[in-house]
Amino acid sequence: MSGKHHNSQIRAPDAAGIAAAVNTLQGGQLVALPTETVYGLAARADCAEAVAAIYRAKGRPDFNPLIVHVGTIEHAATIARLDDRVRGLADAFWPGPLTLVLPLQKEAPISPAVTAGLSTVAIRCPSHPVMRRVLLDSALALAAPSANRSGAVSPTHAAHVAASLGDKVSLILDGGACAAGIESTIVALREGGGWQILRPGPIAVAQIAAILGEDEQEAASAGIEAPGQLASHYSPGKPIRLNAINAASDEFFIGFGPVAGMVNLSTGGDLAEAASRLYACLHRAAAAIEPRIAVAPIPERGIGAAIKDRLRRAAA
Ligand code: AMP
Ligand code: MG
């Protein structure tokens, strides 16, 4: 046993760790592993029992569909119908933190529970070297939501996973802290043309619009289509006050830039750094003795929009 990991289920992502993960996944069991966004709880997407185990472990409502992760765009083409817009976006942002909601391919080898019975599928090609290695070595498509109990704060360190799902998953690969730190941007591409952002994330709406060459359209049915976006989410289990300039004595204060706080998302006011540290700060706040949380103002430009989205849901 290495001295670094006190919990035997947490393994380094060396050759032996990767091989164990591939084996476990091929056998239909769950593995938690790092991606560039947050840690994912992965299962092979073609196996109904494996996918059911994800919903069970997270306590996730069965109407909330999962994102399918693949190693290559060729693999994506066996699961979703890809058009030229998809290829343009994939050229620009894959591998990376962009999820596309696309028409499900006929005969796609995907358990119906993955899409919660929808005729569309959410698909992404992640860039984290550990996740990529597991995807390419296993040749599997992996359903992988964030590796936390449903509705709770997402994990950006292996220890967060162990604390939330330690009794539910036998193998956690430790890839250190997640670089982006918040969940992927989700874009729905409509078959007749048009697109919408279903979840803001590390890739900003302007970057998507620049590739697609047209503006986002009003969502016609997003409420029904993406149920996971509507509920209160990312909850640290305490009341949160946003846009706070200072904190009361019973508040754990998360600062940003010159608003110091007890912890600071980014003392230099860098929004990418703030995103990467957001969930670790919320985990700290959840574990603190103060019964309430206050968060400093965060500008909504670029990835700041995604940070504010998460904080609003955490406060809901
Ligand atoms: P998570 O994996 O927990 O970060 O959440 C994945 C998100 O993707 C959920 O909020 C889902 O609602 C959304 N999603 C997954 N599949 C689809 C789909 N086919 N159509 C719309 N949204 C989807
Ligand atoms: Mg999640």
Show the helix and strand layout.
Layout: E1 10-11, H1 15-26, E2 31-33, E3 40-44, H2 48-58, E4 67-69, H3 73-77, H4 84-93, E5 98-103, E6 120-124, H5 129-138, E7 142-143, H6 158-165, E8 172-173, E9 185-189, E10 195-199, H7 205-212, H8 222-225, E11 240-241, E12 251-255, E13 263-264, H9 271-287, E14 292-295, H10 304-315
Parallel strand pairs: 1-8, 4-6, 5-9, 11-14, 12-13, 12-14
Antiparallel strand pairs: 2-3, 3-7, 4-7, 5-6, 9-10
The protein binds adenosine monophosphate (AMP) and magnesium ion.
In short:
The chain is α/β, with parallel strands linked by helices and 316 residues long. Helices cover 31% and strands 16% of the residues. It has two domains: 3-212, DHBP synthase (Alpha-Beta Complex); 240-315, no CATH class.
Give an overview in words.
- With 316 residues, the protein is α/β, with parallel strands linked by helices.
- It has two domains: 3-212, DHBP synthase (Alpha-Beta Complex), CATH 3.90.870.10; 240-315, no CATH class.
- The chain has helices at 15-26, 48-58, 73-77, 84-93, 129-138, 158-165, 205-212, 222-225, 271-287, 304-315; strands spanning 10-11, 31-33, 40-44, 67-69, 98-103, 120-124, 142-143, 172-173, 185-189, 195-199, 240-241, 251-255, 263-264, 292-295.
- The chain has an eight-stranded mixed β-sheet, with helices on both faces. A four-stranded parallel β-sheet has the order 11-14-12-13, covered by helices on one side. The chain has a two-stranded parallel sheet with strand order 1-8.
- Strand 9 (185-189) and strand 10 (195-199) form a beta hairpin.
- Residues 1-6 have low confidence and may be disordered.
- Bound molecules: adenosine monophosphate and magnesium ion.
